[in-house]
Amino acid sequence: MTDLLTRRLQQLASPQHIALLGQGLRGVERETLRVDRQGVLSHKPHPPALGSALTNDLITTDYSESLLEFITPASHDIADALKRLDDIHRFAYAKLDGEILWNSSMPCVLPPEDEIPIGWYGSSHIGMLKHVYRRGLALRYGRTMQCIAGIHYNFSLNEGLWDVLRESDDRVDASVSRRDYQSERYIALIRNFRRYSWLLMYLFGASPAVATNFLRGRAHQLETLSDDTLYLPYGTSLRMSDLGYQNNAQASITPIYNNLPAYIRSLSHAVSQPYPPYEAIGTKRDGEWVQINTNILQIENEFYSSIRPKRVINSGERPVQALSARGVQYVEVRCMDIDPFDPLGINLQAARFLDVFLHFLALEESCLTSDEENVENRANFMATVKEGRRPGLQLQFKGQAIGLKEWGEQLLDRMAPVAELLDRQAGSSQHRDSMAAQCAKLADADATPSARVLREIRAAGNSFPGWTLASSARQADELIAHPLPAAKAADFVAIAQASLDAQRDIERTQEGDFDTFVAAYRASTLGNISV
């Protein structure tokens, strides 16, 4: 443990400050495909009983009309957020009309590309903009890749905690504002995340296999498990490998994480820089919009990153404008696989470890990064997702080889005091218990989720689609057997109905034509729009 981490933990352990550790916010976004009981991707529209995908804050769709996204409100305790996620699942199952949720990051056996339905958000200009953005994603990356699902974990520390650290940070110039200090500490957290996130892939990666037709005949280095299943014997997360995200345009984006302005400049450049292959496609075909623009990125969120600095946007802002105006408010961790052994896709033990991990990254020293280190970080991450369970696997730290197991144990040792302090504040042992579970995975690679997935696939006849369908159906039946209490279900019905009413109001009151609307969006003169 570094001197800086020790000092910061001692500060926060004091009676006047320890309560701040329980006042940050957590939230979960969970993606999942709708399929029928035979494991066939749903072609039905988004169920109206779930509300409007455009305006329901709890239940929407991601890329495909068949790819549901469940969103919890932010909570101080992640346990409360997961309870809300459980409620959303039970409500959804009451409205899915026999369909079930595919509980794996890698998709079911998919139909031909042009039969994968793109998300539809109604006839309003805002709804059409979201749809056109997804048409652009289909052109740029293909529809198949967009059917991958994951867990996004939103994390913030209480602003008062940052104040405590700032007041005692003798390296900070007095002229640095509270907002800028907080932003730079979140950017420092992200630098550490990029150094150490390979550990999450080892501990929680749960997608070592994929349906054969996911590759669509492309060349690959996967091994054959059966006619319908490909895999990597030591892989942890094919979702986070380079299988699907093969795009020359994004390969040119190298965000700089040494300070917030540099990060903003790099993304702003990608959103405004034309890309010749996209220019050749154009924004319209036969008079219909097919992408928002022909730049490297249509919008900032198109950039695929394992973690993002975030800020809730106000009316008239783009994401980078909000970050520039008011700084970083929270981070969104995007690399977590769906846990196929939990019906929610994530469990409380994993979430408690994420809290330890992210607190550690925020409080630990975080030196500035370099191009060389960025290459090293990327290589470590990719080695872990492809070969993380290989005995004796070596990673690189500052140019020196180090065993994955050895390095992982060192990191967990350094996190132990963080877990102890979080438990002291919460009056529990859950953070330390989660740490113990992760130590067991480092001691025995067979205890990891990816190893368990492969064991169970083999036991079920070597079929990833067959095993996932059976597992998803069992979990669906468990949730369906225990529906929400009537009063709570009525609350969800009211939320869904209000969202449908809100969409109709938008469609009824909008003015102007869509081309003008898109031009205004490009000029960032529209209201609060998330596409």
UniProtKB/TrEMBL annotation:
The keyword 4Fe-4S does not apply. Signal peptide: none annotated. It comes from Herbaspirillum robiniae. Belongs to the glutamate--cysteine ligase type 1 family. Type 1 subfamily. It holds the Pfam family Glu_cys_ligase. The keyword ATP-binding applies. It catalyses: L-cysteine + L-glutamate + ATP = gamma-L-glutamyl-L-cysteine + ADP + phosphate + H(+). This is Glutamate--cysteine ligase. GO terms for molecular function: glutamate-cysteine ligase activity. Coiled coil: none annotated. Residues 9-381 form the Glutamate--cysteine ligase domain. NCBIfam families: glu_cys_ligase. Keywords: ATP-binding, Glutathione biosynthesis, Ligase, Nucleotide-binding. Pathway: Sulfur metabolism; glutathione biosynthesis; glutathione from L-cysteine and L-glutamate: step 1/2. PANTHER family: GLUTAMATE--CYSTEINE LIGASE (PTHR38761). Its EC number is 6.3.2.2.
